[in-house]
Specification:
About 35% of the residues lie in helices and about 25% in strands. The strands form three sheets. Strands 1, 4, 5, 6, 7, 8, 9 and 14 form an eight-stranded mixed β-sheet that branches. It is an alpha+beta fold and about 325 residues long.
Amino acid sequence: MSKNTATAAAYANIAFIKYWGNRDEEFRIPANGSISMNLEGLETKTTVEFDSQLAGDTLQINQQPQSGGSLERVAQFLNRVRESAGISTFARVQSENNFPMGSGIASSASAFAALALAASTAAGLDLSEAQLSALARTGSGSASRSIPAGFVEWLPGEDHQSSFARSIAPPDHWSLVDCIAIVSKEHKKVGSTAGHPLANTSPLQAARVDSAPSRLDICRRAIMEKDFDTFAQVVELDSNIMHAVMMTSSPMLLYWQPATIAIMQAVQDWRTKGIPACYTIDAGPNVHVICEKPYSPQIAQELIKIPGVLDVRTASAGGSAHLVSS
């Protein structure tokens, strides 16, 4: 491949302590920090080629040409890269996901993490991990967390340079598995980008943000000590608080479907029976059931029996965003 072309891959991630709401909408500086785990195998692979013959940026996702909002968002992101690299050449972007997009499985996280690495490399930039994470954040906040490996904390920071994610533990630190119960493969009516500005319309958002540092501390310590009971309690609490903010925003955001609630109830029931599992739900109806690896086959089997569950994907902790070729 020529030096103005690069291909990169990045994994989706699941947030244990959630990101919802920005202090700076343009740069996606978050209202609070967050902690997540990259998801091995749930991958976006993206090729970026800067081509002087192009009259504008082009975008293909899963071999389908894109226009309108999605192309504009990518072009705006590429403008940042061009500005940093001191170039004006337009780019051809080809991206492929191996999991449903826009349904609450962090497809924008893996997409913009892969785009950040591929575009910056193709443009001749040599960015540090923190700089890459900050760049990815400007496309999708959660993409900042898909740059480093394994268990990741996004430091909220005060500005563009100080708001980035870093690894707090490698993928093999703790054998957690995310059993993703897919109850909808449809695009959300209101995506995260449109949802974040609504956060401050909820009377609960200020309390959520004020109490987030305490939950971050509890979650970080639980991960380091592999304390599943403490981990489960804080992860479910944080997910519930975020969805309470969504449900009390104006307009209201209600992502849950009947199957979503059935899964939440089932997980709580399993825990009372001694099966270590907990749920967390991003901005969508699909439910991420987190467990330790020995329990994942049993939990996946139980999840698929719940009415409304279309499919179950499992993923262990994944690595960092990486170049496939450059």
